[in-house]
Design a protein that fits this description.
By secondary structure, the protein is α/β, with parallel strands linked by helices. It is built from 9 helices and 7 strands. A 5-stranded parallel sheet has the order 2-5-1-6-7, sandwiched between helices. The longest helix has 24 residues.
């Protein structure tokens, strides 16, 4: 089965693009969502606490906000966390993909290139957006501080680097993107 990787920085609109594909019958695997689910599974959560210490625990539970503050301030610790999570996310994707029956599937991941996930996709779509709009979207959506959002952005590849390695690009500033998604859908169907 063919795989379209969908990536873009935090707040770029990846999920919006994927939601439109879903309405067209294309299954979407959200690597970011599955990664969170895996992180909070008991054995992985304990492994992360063992590595990062009890300062990431609140009321006996792994605290994602505290963990994020640590890893987005230290690339080495972020890489350590990714080393734990990404093989498990890949395994979950492979199991999920077996059960799909569409012309192609989507693997949505904010850090698709950074983790080497692009190598397992047939095509890559990069959803791009200006940093100013992305920051506004994320601070409103997630109630994160400007500093937090900038740290996350700083740990992701810049748009121009992702665009050079992408097969398709959708710009998601303020213009209508649904026609762009329909055109891309038809283009991909012609390649399947």
């Amino acid at each position: 089965m063919k795989v379209l990787g969908v990536t873009g920085g935090i707040g770029s609109g990846k999920s919006t693009v994927c939601n439109v594909f879903t309405t067209m019958g294309i299954p979407v695997f959200s690597a970011d969502q599955v990664s969170k689910e895996i992180l909070f599974s008991s054995h992985v959560s304990q492994e992360v606490v063992d590595l990062f210490g009890n300062q990431i625990v609140t009321n006996g539970v792994l605290d994602r906000v505290k963990l994020a503050a640590i890893v987005f301030s230290d690339k080495e610790r972020l890489n350590t966390l990714n080393t734990i999570l990404h093989p498990k996310v890949d395994e979950a994707f492979n199991q999920w993909k077996i059960h799909q029956s569409a012309p192609f599937v989507i693997k949505e991941a904010a850090i698709l290139f950074e983790t080497g996930g692009d190598k397992k996709c047939d095509w890559i779509l990069h959803v791009s957006c200006s940093e100013i709009i992305r920051i506004k979207r994320v601070t409103k959506r997630d109630q994160r501080s400007l500093e937090e959002v900038k740290k996350i952005i700083g740990n992701q590849w810049p748009d121009n680097k992702k665009e050079k390695r992408s097969d398709f690009i959708i710009r998601n500033e303020n213009e209508k993107i649904i026609p762009k998604i329909f055109n891309l859908y038809n283009s991909i169907l012609s390649l399947v």
